[in-house]
């Protein structure tokens, strides 16, 4: 009698646990990997220029839209995905370099807040241009690798998801090595600390700045293509609206000066956000994942502004 | 006393200089009075009578109030707030909720809206006072978006998602009269703002912008003055939100997205940070850009459609022009509209017309504070 009554209860509990905890943790980690990728670019520009780049989400969008245009043809012969993706990332790099030349350089000696407003303006400008060319409805981009790596119960892990996590880990490690092991990486850090003295010892400050922004464009471009390939429609400004805030939170949470921190922060923010969204009913707090992010950011800034892995604020 | 040193131009000395040299006769003041009278006639008589212009003019006035409110934080204390649409929206929802659900009297809804705006600003202010500079910009950005996506979607406030109605009383139904009603609020806010810059508190705020540590050393209580700026700014934004609720008649959460917050920052920067008239003109420009130019004239819309052959929304035209205006302003003309119209405003105030201005001209001479953007 008793075992019979107990059996359905435990399966119910097991189901509850997997749908409330296990599934959100895994799918959140995968979502978070894209935040981490976008966050890497933010950390890079913070380390080198001491600014928050609000246009990072749109560098990513430009790459995704260009990749879509390449694969869809637009009157020209359709390109293979790989070429389209390379074209997309190059477009993001070009846009980042143009931003550096036309917006960042003229404002080099202005207060940082001015520069940040200017990057937000750049984001708005790029969103409008995307709207002009691709319309407001949005486009759908194919995943880099189609198919599922794992499906069980309510859990579905796509190949793309696994790929994103791997790419994030590799890029975070490579950029961290770049800063600690190469002369160019050290030169970027030197420029951020003391621009005048750096130029006096013969380091080309302007070229270093262009290089940093190009790198940020590259990281953003990769993030954009992987985000858009996750499914769903990519509209103008989609990345700024849905990925930039979590990416900033990830970068600050992990430590705004730490590249591995962006990786860790991205994955953790993804998990926290998805856990919040699954466990807080919409009727109690609408759009709980956004509220969760606000409190994570606020608490990080109040309790440990340096973040998990950062050394300074 | 030493704090006044942060103001580059000392007005009394300036007046003495200009009236001392020349005679102040009718030839000097008549054209100026005529121009001012013509402008006043246009603003107070022509616009309210026009069915077409009045609604957009009301938008422009409401945006101008928000611009002045944001200017207190950005222009005077030098902090960047990217979440102002949160206070604005909170005021709008509070007024709509008060008049429709609670059936409070019309006038009291403005008190409620101001209170709610101030409350949210105080909450954010208390939490964020230890956070400065870029981090403050970030946390205000996330705060505004969080309010929009979460609080402004609570079914109780949004009438189950359909939007909270906010009906004007009968005597305000006419758009022209509503525009004049908003204008009265703008004049009140301009007066408060003017008084603020003239008082000890106003000078303390400007001192904070110049250098927080120096200000503190002179006995300025940094924390409480920052909080004061936040709360005052939030209350004014809340009132503007209430006016906006009555202007559109039905408030939904989507009205207060991140783009609106950016538009607010853009109009203040393009207008000229720290300059009252510049901010009002910048706000007017953006309100007209968003509404009248693109919806009614539509020439730009069809132009971009022809070039790109994509069905697009007019919003991108406004966004494109706004963003371009911002970047050009920041990079080429940091004083904004305020600096551009300075020869004209100088002439109106009784000085000879000159495109070059005087030795103190340029961004630093713009009244109110240094322009730093």
Task: Please supply descriptive tags for the structure shown above.
heterodimer, A: 313 residues, mainly alpha, two-stranded antiparallel ribbon, 2 strands, 3% strand, globular, B: 373 residues, 71% helix, 1% strand, disordered N terminus, disordered C terminus
Structure explained in plain terms:
The complex is a heterodimer of chains A (313) and B (373). Chain A is an all-alpha fold and 313 residues long. Chain A has helices spanning 2-49, 56-72, 81-104, 112-134, 159-181, 183-193, 195-200, 205-228, 238-254, 259-279, 288-303, and strands spanning 148-152, 155-158. Chain A is 73% helix and 3% strand. In chain A, helix 2 runs parallel beside helix 4, helix 5 runs antiparallel to helix 10 (259-279) and helix 9 (238-254) runs parallel beside helix 11. Chain A is globular and about 65 Å long. The N and C termini of chain A lie far apart (62 Å). Chain B has 373 residues and is mainly alpha-helical. Chain B has a two-stranded antiparallel ribbon with strand order 1-2. The longest helix of chain B is centred in the middle third of the chain and has 27 residues, at 222-248. Chain B has helices at residues 11-21, 26-49, 53-76, 84-100, 106-128, 133-149, 155-158, 175-198, 200-210, 212-217, 222-248, 258-271, 276-297, 299-308, 315-332, 336-340, 342-348, and strands at residues 164-165, 250-251. Helix content of chain B is 71%, strand content 1%. Chain B has 17 helices and 2 strands. The interface between A and B is large, with 50 and 52 residues.
